[in-house]
Design a protein that fits this description.
124 residues; Immunoglobulin-like; 5-stranded mixed β-sheet; 51% strand; globular
Length: 124
Amino acid sequence: MSTYPATTSFVNILVFVKPSAIPEKKFDVTTVPATPIITEKDTVINYQIFDSSGLDIVFTGMTVLPLGSDQLSAPSVSLSGKLLTFSDANTKKVNLNIILEFLNKSVKDGEFSHDPQISNVPQT
């Protein structure tokens, strides 16, 4: 049996969602880490809804800003909706703004979003 070193870097980000004290805001979303620093090329990034305060909240997708960025792949949402995964080429030093898109399945018009950043710092 051969042992090979891991060749792909994985970054897992926990997502916490709780109802906001400000009704217009709907939810407070926290990601840990808040701004992941990506240092390896072709890194797989996983956002996982870890705690949603007992509500049926799922991912529906993601948008990347600026539009047309060549750093992040299209996202994939797991069958349960609790995991959103994409890859980061990490070939340019840049901060990327992403918009995580959610749905509270318990209510009508339950869409909401959160806009964390990813910091690409390729190794030279």
